[in-house]
């Protein structure tokens, strides 16, 4: 039983990062209808730039977090304005191809610049263990999870309470009407894409403070983020969170009780099963939009 | 048609004579790889270009074919002329199975689920050590005493010709036209009695069969198969070939295969730079040349295959 609780905790910790990354994708995939295959590479860039600011330059973790946010937001903005914008309204395929090209470029360019070695982000606190009943969790993990939760809440408030969030929701409900009402929808698209990318990158940086970041991890992360979004239902904010936690726990249980070798297979098997039996996602009553 | 078929026959004749002119083993190897990729690109093009659904799982069929041939040869000692056709058939069976599951989905769901299948197979190949030898792969696959690259060249040329012929037959069959009709307008196609699932399935299974043949050939030619065959890098190469040449055309993927194989070889020294450039090329093609190089060639009989339904744009108000 103690072991079960430990696995559960480990699963929830990883799941929180999955959720944060998937939230970014659900904005891009669920709302903007852009199938962003470079999502995992943006996540990876979050880890790598995070490593650059904290471990390489020796800046404070939270300063690094802010700098990563700024860098990736600008990158996301540029990608939308110079790439995605040009194929908007042409269906899904050009976007898919464009982001596949982008993902190949980003992964290999990063590999050229920083090499294949795993890069560890210097964490905010020490790795001292904390004992909560039978469960052990390091201080570092706990902090990272708390930051993740704070970021998820901040994203939620941004979308629900701010002018930008209002403009986003209006644009994705009816972009023509939003445009007529004076909303600069092009800017809203770019901002949404930038926000989605930033959430992925922050998730990548936080996880890289516990494990490490590698130039080659993007593909797997993209797939897992899609798994989570499909699990939770397209465009559903709550779904992405529950889906992320579910995938994290499923992987931890599989790794703990069955086999450590094939943990990654869980996500793929889940996505195949879900698309077979419940393509609208487990948690959506119908193809719900946030 | 005449001009096109003359060009094709000339190209074929040139290909047949190539080993007599080119004695350099390295160049011959490049020619073999170009033909191998031509088969792969053509088979992917059936799904991407004609059905119009984006499969990212095509390496699944390449890998299944390669492993089938490798296992039959290494563990049971079958000769190449049995293992390669069986590899094609096994892949086709997998194609039927995966198609039955995935072809009900469209757009991003189709992309993700096909990619998932390829990943599952890669993980199985990596972890089922008893059968596949895991990450070490299966080495020393018999080449049936063929020591000459020239023989391999003619084997792969044979497969490529067969592949082109089967793709040609499919494209101009009722199923092929049906697939294009569905691609252009699903609802209109259905209204005139096209079954979208059936025509897509035929393209999918044929594509899997051809990729399996290519995989079987690859296993014997390289004489090694590892989980890398399922890797996304293979998939990226195939997509780029189809795109550069022009998807939805019969000749486009062949041109793309030759260009990309040469590019890949000459950039081999700088592996990461090569893929970095690849990424940029893909983006540039999508933005500036969405229909590939083939769209630059003016054609007399305006591609019956490409714009079957979309040829005459419906004027506003005419419906």
TrEMBL record, chain A:
GO molecular function: transmembrane transporter activity
Membrane topology: Multi-pass membrane protein
Locations listed in the record: Cell membrane
Main localization (coarse): membrane
Cellular component GO terms held in the UniProt record: plasma membrane
Record keywords: Amino-acid transport, Cell membrane, Membrane, Transmembrane, Transmembrane helix, Transport
GO biological process: amino acid transport
Family in the record: Belongs to the binding-protein-dependent transport system permease family. LivHM subfamily.
Protein name from the UniProt record: Branched-chain amino acid ABC transporter permease
Protein species of origin: Pseudorhodoplanes sinuspersici
Automatic annotation (TrEMBL), chain B:
GO cellular component terms attached to this protein's record: plasma membrane
Principal localisation: membrane
Any one GO molecular-function label of the UniProt entry: branched-chain amino acid transmembrane transporter activity
Matches recorded under InterPro entries: ABC_transp_permease (IPR001851), LivM-like (IPR043428)
Membrane topology: Multi-pass membrane protein
Domain of life assignment: Bacteria
CDD domains with a match to the protein in the record: TM_PBP1_LivM_like (cd06581)
Compartment annotation: Cell membrane
Keywords: Cell membrane, Membrane, Transmembrane, Transmembrane helix
Cell membrane found in the keyword field: yes
UniProt name for this protein: Branched-chain amino acid ABC transporter permease
Provenance organism: Pseudorhodoplanes sinuspersici
Taxonomy of the source species: Bacteria, Pseudomonadati, Pseudomonadota, Alphaproteobacteria, Hyphomicrobiales
């Amino acid at each position: 039983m103690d072991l079960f609780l430990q696995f559960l905790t480990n699963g929830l910790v990883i799941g929180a990062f999955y959720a944060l990354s998937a939230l970014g994708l659900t904005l891009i995939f669920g709302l903007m209808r852009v199938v962003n295959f470079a999502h995992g590479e943006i996540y990876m860039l979050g880890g790598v730039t995070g490593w650059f600011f904290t471990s390489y330059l020796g800046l404070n973790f939270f300063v690094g977090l802010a700098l990563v946010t700024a860098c990736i937001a600008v990158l996301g903005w540029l990608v939308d304005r110079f790439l995605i914008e040009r194929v908007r309204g042409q269906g899904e395929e050009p976007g898919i191809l464009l982001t596949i090209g982008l993902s190949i470029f980003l992964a290999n360019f990063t590999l050229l610049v920083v090499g294949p070695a795993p890069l560890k982000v210097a964490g905010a606190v020490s790795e001292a263990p904390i004992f909560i009943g039978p469960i052990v969790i390091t201080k570092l993990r706990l902090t990272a999870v708390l930051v993740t939760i704070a970021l998820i809440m901040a994203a939620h408030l941004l979308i629900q309470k701010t002018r930008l969030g209002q403009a986003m929701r209006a644009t994705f409900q009816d972009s023509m009407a939003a445009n007529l009402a004076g909303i600069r929808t092009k800017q809203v698209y770019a901002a949404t894409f930038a926000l989605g990318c930033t959430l992925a990158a922050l998730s990548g940086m936080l996880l890289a403070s516990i494990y490490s970041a590698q130039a080659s991890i993007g593909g797997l992360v993209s797939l897992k983020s899609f798994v989570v979004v499909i699990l939770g239902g397209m465009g559903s904010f709550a779904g992405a969170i529950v889906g992320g936690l579910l995938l994290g726990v499923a992987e931890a249980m599989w790794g703990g009780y069955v086999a450590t070798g094939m943990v990654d297979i869980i996500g793929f098997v889940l996505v195949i099963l879900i698309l077979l039996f419940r393509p609208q996602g487990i948690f959506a009553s119908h193809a719900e939009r946030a | 048609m005449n001009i096109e078929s003359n060009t094709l026959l000339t190209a074929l004749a040139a290909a047949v004579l190539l080993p007599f002119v080119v004695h350099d083993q390295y160049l011959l190897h490049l020619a073999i790889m170009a033909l191998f990729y031509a088969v792969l690109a053509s088979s992917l093009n059936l799904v991407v270009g004609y059905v119009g659904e984006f499969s990212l799982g095509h390496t699944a069929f390449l890998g299944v074919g390669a492993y089938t041939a490798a296992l039959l040869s290494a563990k049971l000692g079958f000769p190449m002329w049995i293992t390669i056709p069986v590899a094609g058939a096994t892949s086709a069976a997998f194609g039927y199975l995966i198609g039955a599951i995935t072809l009900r989905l469209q757009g991003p769901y189709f992309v993700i689920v096909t990619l998932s299948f390829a990943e599952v197979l890669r993980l199985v190949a990596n972890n089922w050590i008893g059968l596949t030898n895991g990450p070490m792969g299966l080495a020393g696959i018999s080449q049936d005493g063929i020591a000459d690259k020239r023989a391999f060249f003619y084997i792969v040329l044979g497969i490529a010709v067969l592949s082109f012929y089967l793709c040609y037959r499919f494209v101009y069959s009722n199923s092929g036209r049906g697939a294009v009709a569905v691609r252009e307008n699903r609802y209109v196609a259905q209204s005139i009695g096209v079954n979208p699932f059936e025509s897509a399935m035929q393209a999918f299974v044929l594509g899997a069969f051809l990729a399996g043949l290519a995989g079987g050939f690859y296993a014997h030619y390289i004489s090694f198969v590892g989980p890398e065959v399922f890797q996304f890098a293979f998939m990226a190469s195939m997509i780029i070939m189809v795109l550069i040449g022009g998807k939805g055309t019969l000749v486009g993927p062949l041109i793309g295969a030759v260009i990309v194989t040469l590019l890949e070889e000459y950039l081999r020294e700088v592996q990461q730079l090569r893929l970095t450039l690849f990424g940029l090329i893909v983006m540039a093609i999508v933005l500036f040349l969405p229909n590939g190089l083939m769209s630059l060639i003016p054609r007399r009989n305006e591609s019956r295959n490409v714009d079957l339904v979309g040829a005459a744009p419906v004027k506003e108000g005419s419906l």
